[in-house]
Amino acid sequence: MLAGSLQNVGLSGPLEAFPSSLSLQSYKMIFSSSPMIRYVFNSIIVGLAVVIGNVIFSVLVGYGFARYRFRAREFWFASALVVMMIPPHVIIIPLYKLINALGWYNSYAALIIPWLVNPFGIFLMRQYILSLPTEIEDAARVDGASDLYIVFKIVMPLAKPALAVLAFQSFLTNWNSFLFPFILTSSDSMRTLPVALALLKGYQAIDWPQLLAASTISTLPVLILFLIFQRQIISGITAGALKS
């Protein structure tokens, strides 16, 4: 992909794995002929907002399911898991009608609010919090700590591996999301990178160097995030795999 993006624009022959000459013309053309910076900005804003929402709400809901005893607790937790089995395409029409009724169409609200919490995050945090010892929380309550203080100051630091997995999964899912941003937006000012990549394809031909250059740009943030947080992500994925 990187090698193809560094070849000359308008290349009619097959792309070379090891091109004899390299050129940044494809990158220049992308930024000059399309609002690529705006697409990147939109994807970053949406991705970060959804990650923050997923981390906060999933921790709160997961902590409630893990620590509190209330009526029909197992029923409500099972209902959250059932949502994971429903294909997202089923809710396209109801979600589109709801977004229009609320006046959110072609706005950040349409791209962010419906995805601020997801069943996977609730399940992940509930299971991880169950594995944490309760003695520290009990000691904090004796000292007068509130439930919110315990969640944000004690539970979240202890659950960093699970939070890293949740944050990376949420960011990756929304960064690569195409269908809903395509349906819920209509202008260049609100489009995200996956939608922009699809629009780069022509009806008669595809400028592969430009498309590969845009794909390289969209891949870099996810790759950088994984390289930075790979230790926490791997630790979170393997947590609980072995019993002591």
Largest beta-sheet characterization: none
Question: What is the assigned CATH homologous superfamily?
Answer: MetI-like
Please report the distance between the alpha carbons of the first and last residues.
44 Å
CATH class: Mainly Alpha
Number of helices: 13
Mean pLDDT: 86
As for the number of domains, it is: 1
Please give the number of β-strands.
0
CATH topology: MetI-like fold
- Order of helix and strand elements from N to C terminus: HHHHHHHHHHHHH
Briefly note the structural class of the backbone: mainly alpha
At CATH's second level, what is the architecture?
Answer: Orthogonal Bundle
Question: What value does the Rg take, in angstroms?
Answer: 22 Å
Helical content class: 55-70%
Extract low-pLDDT stretches: none
Overall geometry = globular
